[in-house]
Design brief:
Layout (H helix, E strand, L loop, with lengths): L2 H8 L8 E6 L5 E7 L10 H10 L8 H11 L11 E5 L10 E4 L1 H4 L6 E2 L5 E2 L8 E2 L4 E6 L7 E2 L5 E2 L10 E2 L3 E3 L5 E4 L3 E5 L4 E5 L1 E4 L10 E3 L2 E4 L8 E4 L3 E3 L3 E2 L2 E4 L3 E3 L2 E3 L5 E4 L3 E7 L2 E4 L3 E14 L3 E3 L5 E9 L2 E7 L7 E5 L3 H37 L6 H36 L5 E8 L3 E5 L2 E4 L4 E8 L5 E5 L1
Helix pairs in contact: 5-6
Length: about 475
């Protein structure tokens, strides 16, 4: 070897092999690797070198062999001695806790109440606030969603990481509700108002209570059971109940409809719009300007003033001032009061002995008969007039004139048919009414002139003052009087 070669050999840099740097995260969930390529002909890092580094660090879970292979291949293309980028080559699996069980309520129980209903056209109905949640017996009110099991994880060293299972929930069936046989849902045991408490208890009540007035804070009430209103029913609002309605205040221009009884602590003011309809009976302190239709009895303490009343039973005024002044009273059985009419001669009509529905049908048919007779008469007069024109001036007859005669004759024939039909119906209703001989009217103090009493089909207008009198239908079929 020459002296020059010897000098060059002595100054030749030492070869440096490639190296692997492995970094583990503090939570041992991620392993990152970087590779430094060799220098001066050193040995490059191979796949076996990289895996040996992982084995030395005891990284055995979540190893990404493809990422390691790509890292080794990339390092072979990089300048020697320059560390390559860090690449994640192993990743642990985070444990997943199970989801807790849940109670899924019926959509009715998920709907917010107390908010106005928005119609399809965009208008807001402040009278409908969805305060009542009506459900039928057997309705599924809530279902149980089972919890899920947790999925355990592992760190990159292969050590397991536990996961928590979801907590279970228990369905709670309160009053009016019951658990289904499979224990997975709550059913309505009765028909009524469904509710879900803060602690998850489902209940169904046959009674819906309004704590104060029925007004814009509650909207209209429509319930399948009994409604209790602790305040008043204000103008324009409606309370409907399939069973009874109990009002601790009064009704002022509102509407109450009940399948059963209606009890009003104070009065019923109509204001031309107020109405009470009950399948059972109605009790109140007074009635003024309202329409009352009851299937049973109407019991009033103080008075009925300018009202329209229909009662399937009797109408009774029980107080010391119990008076009926103005309006129209219809009752199937009897009407009892202390004062009937007024000294001013206020027109007051009292009808008894005939069910209100039958009397209403009788009046409807009689009105229809009058219309049919008027139609027939007008058509007959028109035909006679046109015939008279034909007779006096035959030359003036035109096709239009003939058409008018034909049209009037058709109207005349139609009126004749309708008149005959309604007359047959009216005769049948009168025969049915004539069979009804019961019913009486009692004025325990006084009955004034201006009162019209109708018992069955017999009319008896009062022209004199009557004291302590009972009006009834005698065996001869005429209205008679006796001491009340």
């Amino acid at each position: 070897m020459s002296t020059v070669d010897q000098v060059e050999a002595e100054h030749q840099p030492e070869p440096q092999d490639g190296s692997v740097t492995l970094t583990l995260s503090t939570d041992l969930m991620v392993a990152s690797m970087s590779i430094t390529p060799p220098l001066h002909g050193g040995e490059p890092v191979t796949m076996e070198h990289a895996l040996a580094e992982l084995a030395t660090a005891k990284v055995v879970f979540g190893v990404d062999l493809q990422a390691v292979q790509e890292l080794v291949a990339t390092a072979a293309q990089q300048p020697g001695g320059v560390p390559g980028p860090k690449v994640v080559v192993a990743r642990g699996r985070t444990p997943v806790n199970g989801e807790n069980g849940a109670i899924i309520p019926h959509e009715l129980l998920q709907t917010q109440s107390g908010y106005p209903q928005v119609r399809e056209d965009g208008r807001v109905d402040f009278f409908q606030l969805n305060m009542v949640r009506n459900v039928k017996e057997g309705t599924v009110l809530a279902t149980r969603q089972a919890p899920t099991r947790g999925v355990p994880g592992s760190d990159i060293l292969g050590r397991p990481l536990p996961a928590r299972d979801g907590a279970d929930v228990k369905l709670k069936a309160g009053k009016g509700a019951k658990l289904a046989p499979d224990q997975q849902s709550v059913l309505a045991a009765i028909e009524g108002h469904a509710s879900l408490s803060a602690n998850g208890e489902v209940t169904v009540s046959p009674i819906f209570t309004v704590p104060e007035d029925v007004d814009f804070s509650t909207g209209n009430i429509d319930f399948v059971g009994t409604v209790i209103v602790r305040g008043n029913v204000n103008p324009g609002f409606v309370v409907k109940a399939a069973q009874n309605v109990e009002i601790h205040g009064g009704i002022s221009g509102g509407v109450v409809e009940a399948g059963g009884d209606v009890i009003v602590r104070y009065g019923i003011l109509g204001g031309s719009k107020g109405r009470v309809v009950a399948g059972g009976s109605v009790q109140c302190r007074f009635v003024e300007g309202a329409e009352i239709r009851v299937g049973g009895d109407l019991t009033v303490v103080d008075g009925i003033l300018h009202a329209r009343v229909q009662a399937g039973g009797k109408v009774s005024l029980t107080g010391s001032r119990g008076s009926i002044i103005g309006g129209q009273i219809r009752a199937s059985a009897e009407v009892n009061c202390r004062i009937l009419g007024s000294s001013a001669g206020t027109v007051t009509e009292v009808m008894v002995g005939v069910p209100p529905e039958l009397r209403s049908e009788y009046e409807r048919v009689r009105a229809a008969l009058r219309q049919a007779e008027a139609k027939f008469t007008r058509a007959a007069q028109t035909v006679a007039f046109l015939r008279e024109l034909e007779t006096r001036n035959p030359e003036a007859v035109t096709p239009y004139h003939t058409q008018m005669i034909q049209q009037a004759m058709r109207s005349q024939n139609q009126g004749r048919v309708e008149r005959e039909k309604y007359q047959v119906s009216l005769d049948a209703l009168e025969a049915e009414i004539d069979k009804l001989k019961s019913g009486n009217v009692r004025a325990f103090e006084v009955a004034y002139p201006g009162v019209k009493i109708v018992i069955g089909s017999e009319r008896f207008p009062l022209t004199d003052l009557y004291h302590r009198t009972c009006f009834f239908l005698s065996e001869e079929g005429v209205v008679a009087t006796a001491p009340a």
